[in-house]
């Protein structure tokens, strides 16, 4: 069963697989022998791609779909536009038009960051050109042959993601509130709840903005923070400034929103009726010293996945949720993130060090710390918990791994480092939304699988082919995430931002989730930029995934739509059921 002639595809089911190598790639094919009576699974297969030909320009980031008009709306971020794609034939998607946000919004319109659709109404998150100033949510009426601007609602700084509640009565917006490039301005992170009355023609809206000031040091709710399980940092920052909402998912009954606080390794739970922050869930830390949870810590040693005295700070980007037997579960794509971009221009040593960061000999304020740069510094004591008898070792040990200096110091109680706290989990996880208990983590699956297929070309970057390049820095970086039900089974689709491709897991039983398939059509021998600019329909850097149920799909089959940031491609995948019955 040949699925693609020249592209790598991975399918695994019940442990029965056949492997064929060709043209420098590896294809793993499903063994057709029945495995379990009356069991079923799926395969995803790419059937069509819309190509912008724009390299590394954020030309395809987030995507949403309108089942009525069979159109996909794709964030063309840096252009400040939304591309409108005709998806009526997903094997040959085409561009129907675009929305130029600056034509409709009065103000200093910056990048578009997110888009969502519900019942004829399109919502777009738009930042200000000065990202620390207030941004907007722009609303549009979508019809078969037209798009009509309705209004732009002012919201707080850096609206980064938005989503309609399932009942369509509210829109929830993550206002990230990132600092400017020298940390001289640091807005509050907020969540906007926009109440909506929409009759298909006219819109009435009312906005409530929540911040986290009640959790500041000395404030009424500070004691509720699960501080041992999360990260509190930021340059001279309050808790409310430190919190930077990244992503939102809403419970199926529209009663609660779950908001990823990525840099803080936490999730906020919000009651949407009372418009109150109910609680903060700390996600804890991944123990990379345990079997099955290792990592490759260096970009100079090829494939070297093993256990280390390292804790992973999950720091999810995309999150989503689903319900099983009345219990809500949260899924997290454990990308990891740091504040280094905003610290680089901080030149005051006292302020830097007072906030728990490292001030180096080049007058740089540092959190993304690697021992290769600071090995000889007297401020760091290399403890016996670290490899190589009290040192970081060489290129094939922990010398090059980037970790959070602030968190490592805080969790070790000083600069005698027994354990390092590294960015990201290199995995996806499932949590009980009520208790905060982690019931599943994919461990080191992503690195192990990509290493088996690509060899030393695993942990590649998304914008160039340089094997092993990201091993010292968050590895494959799972970022995009979607859930879909196919038949009686529920699946998670996880996009790996750096290595590329989509991992598929059966999550019907959350605690016993199983790997199903990995699809990746990148060619590690090609020049990435040249290939993209030549218009090749190969995907690099999946940023957003939309699941389309069979009853809503143009071809009557469940479908994935994947927006890819680096390649500027929007790809359509058929989801095919495979039945293994006697």
UniProtKB/TrEMBL annotation:
- UniProt-annotated stretches for the region Disordered: 457-479
Q: Where is the Choice-of-anchor I domain?
A: 56-575
**Source organism, top-level taxon:** Bacteria
Q: Which InterPro entries match?
A: Choice_anch_I (IPR055188), Haem_d1_sf (IPR011048), Mesenchyme-surface_protein (IPR052956), N2O_reductase_N (IPR011045), WD40/YVTN_repeat-like_dom_sf (IPR015943)
Q: Where is the composition biased (Basic and acidic residues)?
A: 467-477
Protein name listed in UniProt: Alkaline phosphatase
Concerning Pfam families, the annotation shows: choice_anch_I (PF22494)
Looking up NCBIfam families in the UniProt record yields: choice_anch_I
């Amino acid at each position: 069963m040949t699925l693609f002639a020249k592209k790598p595809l991975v399918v695994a089911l019940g442990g029965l697989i056949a492997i064929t190598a060709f043209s420098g790639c590896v294809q793993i094919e499903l063994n057709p022998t029945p495995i379990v009576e009356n069991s079923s699974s799926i395969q995803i297969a790419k059937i069509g791609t819309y190509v912008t030909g724009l390299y590394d320009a954020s030309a395809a980031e987030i995507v949403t779909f309108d089942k009525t008009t069979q159109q996909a709306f794709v964030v063309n971020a840096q252009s400040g536009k939304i591309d409108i794609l005709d998806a009526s034939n997903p094997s040959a998607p085409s561009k129907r038009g675009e929305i130029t946000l600056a034509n409709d919004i009065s103000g200093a319109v910056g990048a578009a960051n997110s888009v969502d659709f519900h019942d004829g109404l399109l919502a777009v998150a738009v930042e200000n050109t000065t990202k620390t100033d207030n941004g907007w949510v722009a609303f549009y009426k979508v019809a078969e042959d037209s798009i009509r601007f309705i209004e732009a609602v002012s919201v707080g700084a850096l609206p980064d993601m938005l989503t309609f509640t399932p009942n369509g009565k509210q829109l929830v917006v993550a206002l990230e509130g990132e600092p400017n490039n020298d940390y001289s301005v640091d807005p509050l992170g907020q969540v906007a709840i926009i109440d909506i009355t929409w009759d298909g023609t006219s819109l009435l809206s009312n906005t409530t903005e929540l911040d986290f000031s009640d959790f500041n040091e000395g404030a009424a709710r500070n004691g509720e923070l699960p501080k041992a399980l999360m990260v509190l940092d930021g340059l001279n920052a309050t808790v409310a400034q430190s919190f930077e909402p990244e992503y939102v998912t809403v419970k199926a009954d529209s009663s609660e929103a779950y908001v990823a606080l990525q840099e803080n390794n936490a999730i906020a739970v919000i009651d949407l009726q009372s418009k109150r922050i109910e609680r903060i869930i700390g996600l804890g830390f991944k123990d990379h010293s345990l079997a099955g949870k290792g990592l490759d810590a260096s970009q100079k040693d090829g494939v070297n996945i093993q256990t280390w005295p390292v804790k992973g700070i999950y720091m999810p980007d995309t999150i989503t949720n689903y319900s099983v037997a009345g219990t809500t579960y949260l899924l997290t794509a454990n990308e990891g993130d740091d504040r280094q971009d905003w610290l680089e221009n901080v030149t005051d040593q006292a302020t830097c060090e007072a906030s728990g960061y490292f001030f180096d000999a080049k007058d740089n304020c540092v959190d993304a710390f690697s021992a290769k740069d600071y090995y000889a510094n007297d401020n760091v004591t290399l403890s016996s918990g670290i490899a190589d008898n009290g040192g970081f070792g060489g290129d094939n040990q922990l010398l090059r791994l980037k970790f959070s200096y602030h968190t490592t110091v805080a969790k070790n109680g000083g600069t005698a480092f027994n354990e390092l706290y590294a960015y990201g989990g290199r995995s996806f996880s499932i949590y009980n939304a009520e208790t905060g208990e982690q019931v599943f983590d994919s461990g080191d699956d992503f690195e192990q699988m990509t290493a088996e297929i690509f060899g030393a070309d695993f942990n590649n970057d998304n914008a160039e082919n340089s094997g092993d390049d990201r091993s010292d820095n968050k590895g494959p970086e799972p970022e995009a995430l979607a859930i879909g039900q196919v038949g009686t089974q529920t699946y998670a689709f996880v996009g790996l931002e750096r290595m590329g491709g989509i991992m598929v897991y059966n999550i019907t039983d959350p605690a016993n989730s199983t790997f199903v398939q990995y699809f990746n059509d990148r060619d590690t021998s090609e020049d990435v930029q040249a290939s993209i600019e030549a218009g090749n329909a190969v995907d690099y850097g999946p940023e957003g995934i939309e699941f389309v149920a069979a009853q809503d799909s143009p071809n009557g089959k469940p479908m994935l739509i994947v927006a890819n940031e680096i390649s500027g491609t929007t790809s359509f995948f058929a989801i095919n059921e495979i039945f293994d019955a006697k």
